[in-house]
Design goal:
The chain is mainly α and about 230 residues long. Helix content is about 70%, strand content about 0%.
Length: about 230
Amino acid sequence: MNNFDTVIQTFLTQITFPPLVDHAIRVIAGLYTFKGFLLVPMLWWFWFQPNERSEWQREMVIATVASGLLALALGRGLAMSLPFRVRPIYNPALHLHFPASLRAATLQAWSSFPSDHAMLWSAVATGIFLISRRVGVVALLYVFVFICLPRAYLGYHYPTDLLAGAAIGIAITWLMTRDAIRTRYAVPIMRGVQRFPGAAYTFAFLLCFELITQFDELLLLAHSARHTL
């Protein structure tokens, strides 16, 4: 662990909270309610908000969702392809004590670097920021306080895992929302929505649901099917 991670991780583990606060932090880190259930509805609000920039705004919403999907896929791809990095909570060499967490048991086989949570939700929050600076600042702060910070405190990730993930997520959204790139895929999707609104909104709802849950249940089903067959 580098000096940057050492200083921050040691500082976080020295903070003493009452058991009820530790439990609340574990709940916040573990439930989807405190992740996409707040951020994704912001995108739906922008989509249906009537104003003179509604067409551009809808293109940006499409680009933000596409960025989130790309960030999630890339994050998990990097975690599987890069050299394995054991998570802080499972690294005995650190000699650090983290609050116990049942959810952490499911993370033992996953590499710590980079954080797919940080990549996905930083990408989404950046898209919100590009649509509305005021709302976007709140979204970015929310990602830091309620998504990234608890994962460092509980020992799920090193600070550099989260910073790298956030930086990659932000870069993906910045790139995917550039006019020259965004119009290539967002405009055709907009035409499809106008032509087939029923099917489009049904698919959008299902896609956003899976994005909120980070496709975890589908991946679990696929994993179970692979081991069963």
